[in-house]
Write the structure tokens for this entry.
Amino acid sequence: MKKQPTRLENTLRMRAWRDRKGGLKPPIPPRDPSVLEHWLEKWRQSMAERGTAHATLVTQTDHARHFVRWCHAKGYRDPSWISAGLVQAWLTDLESVITIWGTPLTRSSLDGRIGCVRRFFGYLCEYRAIPWNPLASHCGRSRLSRPLPVVLDEQTTLDLIEAPDTSDPVGVRDRAMLEVLYSTGMRRCELATLRVRDLRLDCRTVLVAQGKGGKSRMVPLGPQARLWLKRYLNDVRDLLAGKDPNCEVLFLTGYGEGFSLGSIGHVVRRYLDAIGMPCHGGCHLLRHACATHMLDHGADLRVIQELLGHSRLDTTAIYTHVSNERLCKIHAECHPRGHAVGPCDPEDDHATAPVPVAIRRDAKAPVLDKGKRAV
């Protein structure tokens, strides 16, 4: 039987094929911009001059560009054509957009896109390109109405982290990435920009130098994360570095380059599919799991806030609503009627059944037990 190539061999073969083809494709030449596109570029430059974070700059410009392209498809290429009726038609079409999952945009996604266009309109009003802002009265979703995050239970998280085939060098890299994500709770954009010099393995920490909002923080690395990082650095990274051994990015693709945000998400998604988890999401599932499991084991909320890099404590406080196991345990220990001292309701499952720690989608969602995964 012919031996199947390893993932590393496939990766190196694809790298050689790309080099033979002359490298990456040249960029598409720019076309003549419309008046709306001209204003969009000026808005992007003004945000860059104010020091807006790169990720925020890209997101806001892309969402506003979606509106500009919609206007072009309708034949409107000048800001003077923007009216309440035109914006209402765009809002109606926006609600019919279908994601790659086959579902419509969530309320938060809609509010995010509308908010970007509202800020673009504000810029046009400031420079008198339009007389008024048609979205000025649009109110976004309240922070208090955010749905609870999806959280993997501890055993499922362990299965996910152990899913990569560590007999293959690419599997070692993936295992190190998963361990770092779960140990530190960092965002995927922070993992993508992590550099080798940011590691402090002797001090058991790592510097997140390019965090959200341009803020940096030092976060601890657990023993398993340090173990797999050392193995990746010693045995794998030089194999992936290729033609640029001086590349400073910590985690490299098979092409010897840093990961894009989407490609990191695909890595995590691949292993979620491999263990049969039906939930949406990728890297952020490990971030939620890190915070919730630490809260379950008694960590202080402000410690978790510092670990995750949240600027507001109420952002971290959402995990207190997810950590039902710890809540029920404290209730049983501290409430005067927490222990059964007399006859119990035979229909009360909570009198005998333990509280499951499993995937939680929201407060009303049924618990999906690990033994009943969808495939």
User: Anything to note?
Assistant: The chain is about 50% helix and 5% strand. Residues 54-74 form the longest helix (21 residues).
